[in-house]
Amino acid sequence: MRASKAIAATVAAVGSILLAAGCGSSSSSSSSSAAAAGGSSAAAGGSGSAGAANWATCTSVAACGGMSALVAAAKSEGHLNVITLPADWANYGTIMKDFTAKYGIQITDENPDGTSQDELNAIQQTKGQSRAPDVVDVGTAFAAKGQTAGDWADYEVATWSDIPASQKDPNGAYYADYGGYVAIGYDSSRVKTPPTSFKSLLTGPYKNMVALNGNPTQAGAAFAGVYAAALANGGSFSDIAPGVSYFKQLKQAGNFVPVTGSASTMESGQTPILIWWDYLLASEVGASYKNLKIVIPSDARYAAYYDQAVSKYAPDPAAARLWEEYLYSAEGQNLWLEGGTRPVELPSLVAAGTEDKTAYATLPAVPAGGVTFPSITQQNAAESVVSQQWPSVLS
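^ that's the sequence the OP posted. Answer follows.
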């Protein structure tokens, strides 16, 4: 499942910018409509149009004739291959549908519930094939891994300056797209004392109520929940052990339910309180369950994000670049915002007054203070600690 996607989705320091990564999706969405065989350009390197531009090597739309030329080339290709995009994840179902409606370009979404590693594997295994992924949406550690392997084509979207420098590769190999915060979701019809913090979950009247969205040794969002708990209990990015100790105490208090929490377990009453990414709580629980309330814990602000990259081997190089332009336009950024995420260009949208104000108003309030992020080295070390110590929570 895409749940594994963020277990190594690391983040770079970005000061107070509000971002996110996440996982633990239990969705089983199907592929978008696929084009007929031969609908995509035959091989990366073709321009996809009669013009002189070689879109497979274009590093910006301005360098290859502008948006009109890009749109024409992408329409000539007529197809886009994406991978691992569940329809109910970050509003991708609507984003794909709207992209196709706007440009007439059909999308195939391969392996919607896969992982970031599945995406990298597909890049390597399908080189030269018309079904190869054109673009990816991966955790930062995987974006860096793909860059090391030479898998990405450098490309700077037209709104490049609106993406903070700390959230993008300086050459355009990959760049942050959307994210969110570890949050506490609760069923207001069953939970009469609203939780506000990790501490409150330990001391409040929450017997057999609290769950993570999976095992933190396997599910990225669950791992993030442990990291957030560590920050709330005297730990740090270099010391996740207090987070493990916290869940051990939560279980000893009778509050922690060691099952995989989901929309169904919350609605059934098995886990009325679920620690998960705020945008997945909103899209996978709140979309169908109106009793859901979401709060960012007051004692821990833990955020992360995903990254976009264009495959160097994209069979539809113009469509790949048009997809990125669409995602990083005000239209695309607002579609992510409507999915409950915090798109990377949100500060610029707000400054310009172009944000979807209704969607923006529904984002959970974030406690005052900036946000910092663990390094890849710190996160890898933390994963090792959790792998070693988590069995003690369940014993």
